[in-house]
Structure prediction request, 1212 residues.
Amino acid sequence: MQPVEEMPPALPSMWRALKRGYRAEPLMLPLALGFSLLAALPDALMALWLKLLADGVLAKNRRLLLGAAVGLGISTAGTWFLRVISDRVQRRFRDRLTIALESQVADLQASAVTIAHQERPEYLDRLAMLRDQVFVLDHMYMSLFSTFGWILRLGVTIALLCSIHPALGLLALFAIPTVLTSSWRPGAERKAEEAGAPARRLARHLFEVATTTAPGKEVRVTGIGEKLTNLRRSTWDIWYRSVSRARWMSAVFHMMAWTVFGTGYLGAVVFVAAIMKGSSAQVLLVLAAGSRLSAYIGATVGEIGFLRGFWLEGSRRLAWLEDYTAALADHADVEVPKSLSDGIVIEHLSFSHPGSERAALKNVSVKLPAGSVVAVVGENGAGKSTLVKLLCRMYTPDSGRILVDGRDLGRMPATEWRSRLAGAFQDFFRFEFRARDTVGLGDVTRLGDLKAVSAAIERGGADEVIQNLGSGLETQLGKTWPAGVELSFGQWQKLALARGFMREHPLLLVLDEPTAALDAETEHALFERFAAAARDGKTQQDGNGRITLLVSHRFSTVRMADLIVVMNGAEVVEVGSHNELMALGGTYSELYRIQAAAYRHIPAKEQAQRSEA
Amino acid sequence: MLKRLRTSNNWKFFCALQQANKPLACAWWAVLILRGLMPAAFAVTMGVLIGALQTGTSLWMPLALVGVVFVLLQVLSPLHNAIASNLGSQTAAWLYDQLTIACVRPPGIGHLEEPSLTTDLTMARDFDLGITGPPLNISMGFIASGLVEMAGGLAASILLAGYSWWAPLVLAGAWFATHWLLRESAVWRDRNTEEVREAQRHADYAYRLAVDPPAAKELRLFGLSSWTVDRFKSRRRQLFELQWRATRLRERPVAWSVLIVVAANVAVFSALALDAAKGALSLSQLVTFASAAAATSMIGFGGLSWALDSASAPVGAVARLKKPMETAGALPLRNEPAVGMPAREICFKDLKFSYPNTDACVLDGFSLVIPAGTSLAVVGQNGAGKTTLAKLLCRLYDPQAGAIQIDGVDLRDLDVESWRHRITAVFQDFIRFELSLRENVAPGGAPDDVIQEALVAAGAAGLANLDTPLSKGYAGGTDLSGGQWQRIALARALCAVKLGAGLVLLDEPTAQLDVRGEAEIFDRLLKATRKATTILISHRFSTVRHADRICVLENGRVVEHGTHDELMARGGRYHTMFQLQASRFGEGEEDGMELNATG
Prediction:
């Protein structure tokens, strides 16, 4: 089993995040930082004004008194004003940055060459946060800026304290326990969170089962609604127990740390008032500055906690995702051929899903000749879909290679290779757009080309689906959208097929069990069309040597293929035409006979049994 | 006014806190108020200490006071944080519970499909994922600090009343004025307009498309990543622009606010200074009141109050949803028991049905009698209404006209639960519980040996231990292939039959099975459900022909009905469809496989 790689270290990740922010918003970033520093100043001077006020009283200096009062008034108002403004500037900055970050996360995940990150649980866990909480990532900039602001305030305040007696600067040392707990506890809380993650995920799953439409049918028929409700809550409680315990523990540790600081502070006041025999004004400065100091330390460590708890994690994950996708990026130095003359040769291909010990493909070698229809058959789990995905370059093989007209597929740019593919999958996605877009997405360059869309719809046998829609091609699909229309499974499948037929001259057409839910007439019409298209590909002058690869359990179709590849237990066991394989009398002929028999007479004996019952 | 307050989301939000966890909510409020009192208390103790210094009396008492208040000032906030995040989590859980119950309880299913409810439902369903804002356990802390500030400012202004009656009025009045002047910038009022919602939903959909696994393959095959991301970006930008325009700070109100606040503060502080200069205020009093005056600023406008608003929105949504969901999912309930049904027959009488909010008639004059204990296969094109038939039998909807009668009793007169006890169904999109194998086969519970038998009968014996979770996402879990899942779903139905279900609905039960699997499973399935009434929906004529009777559904009504042999003999629709599939076998077979129509 391949181990999961470590995430990049914290500080470099943070630095990369900062650079990312600067690249996205080179103007707003310094502006936002500047304002948060500016907002720190009048606030930090409050203690000084208070001291001057006291000095004025003690010296009976009316002008000093009035000056300090005005200073206090303006400082108070200024603190507020700058806070409001800097809040706005930061918000604007964050809003813009959020879009940039979310787009980047979306882009990285959507364009990563392979799809292992979407299938491996370890990766899924790691990505869950990036997927659902990108807002945390933009929060980190605000957090970082305010940290700078608080540190500035701290500096000013400590300077004020030192102006009374340098020893008072030592007060900052009493804050060390708070810094320690603040940097340790968020990690501990996160660990508790991770320990409870499976329970939380299960609770979410149960919640979705209970609240979405499709499972709603079965929930009602089986009458498990109440059980689901209770199970969801008790599962959630498992998560909550571990997380809340960690939170309470954090509170206890933080409180102890702050008590230490409080004691130090009291010591400072006693030192100035009783030992130094300082003036009232000096005591006042210690009182005011000291209390400010604690507020600033509290805010700083709070922000650091946030940083550690959320955005450090977030930026590490994002940095990891960047590295991960970059590592997958092509080292492409081979061009995709314009047409196929020889075909696709698969050589000693082996693959096992990351995180799984079982091989999905074992040493598979087979040639798919140009201009042919190739069918892949085999029982569930034989590796058929994996083979298809490898041909689409959605996985990187563990060993072996695929040659397209003699050129190594692994060295071709994946996106370009895929632009020459077309097809449909068994687990197709229900794109909930207008019907024309749902189909048109199959060739995004001709998305608006209604003629092309209509042609694809015809090829996919979906005319009737469109005709039955209230607004035809303009109909919004998907029940949850305003004026959206829900389709049946089979109707969705026809649209998926139509989408698969949008590209007109693919080199490879992959059809991975695309007709499982189709009715007999559509299925039949489709197969006739495959066969015709295949013949065209061979005979036409401008034929590009297209290969049609069909995965199917329907032997009625499979037998029409030029070449049949039989897979069993991750290996190719038989290759040949229908007649050759029937003559061979192996796995294929056995499976074929089973299915053909189903269309013959039902033996009289069985019929009798049935009617007796 | 009071009524508006009561119906506001914020009010509902604070009520929800109480309902979610009363002790925690009370603690949250108590600590909040205590924290609010601290700045004023600190101002007082400062004054007391300075006073003691001035008069030269013993310092121990004032110092102890300063110490206690100061330590409290520090330790209350981590305590409050822990309370807030736990309370936030509890409230989220409570909301989830409310929503789950609202979804699960109605006997019908219309409330889950009603388009006018889906917007609220989607928002409510995803509220705590942190997609539109921080989850509750975080925003509770933000809400708390906002309220602590407000309470602190108020307490300080009350303290200031000890100086003079007008000072707190002027000062607090000025700070409150900022709220009023900047009110448009504080809350995004138009966040529920159609334009905003639409941008939000499109942005979310495009984002999910890009990052979630289901679309991953096609996104790559068709090279859609940049199309999707661009779509997301433009909608998202639109959304932020709308928000920014609605809540930006306007120059004039800001200028007025600054003017008022500076004037009020300078006035109060100067008055304090002048009185101190006159000797009317001692230094200790001056210190206390000046600190109090400074602390009053906490009342001021604090920026966009998004935390409370975004936390309240889902509470409002859940509350709004409850009633209409109940109505939309309601069925007229009667309580005739359904024990032992169907004993004689299931009879469809001139059934007419169209889905709510659509015009298309899915069933239109559908009539059919199914004798109890027999099997019926339903065939027809995609969208012909086959699955709808199954849904109506489960009484997820009631027909608009006509009736379904079970042993002569109208389905609507039967007790829903009692009737559903009699049914088991394998739908095309059956549930794949991320739970143990045991719970997948018997979600409602069953003895282990019954579960094992069902698994054996469905050809799923030895797939996994009964305790194994059926998802890789959990410790010791395993992933199943589509075909294996299908066998689990069949085992679920068979287990229900063993527990006494009398009607079995199978909607494309073998679509994902391979050849050997399909051939083998049917014999077993038929054997296991022999005593029950079975309705099978399938496109596979190899499967369909096993049924006692077959009905061909077209345009919402029965066009052919009879045994396989009868229908083949008739040479109608069924014959055509069967031949289409069968003819592709055996053309020119050497072994002369007989593929005929009449049987």
Observations:
- Residues 150 and 535 of chain B are 66 Å apart (CA to CA).
- Residues 587-599 of chain B have pLDDT under 50 and may be disordered.
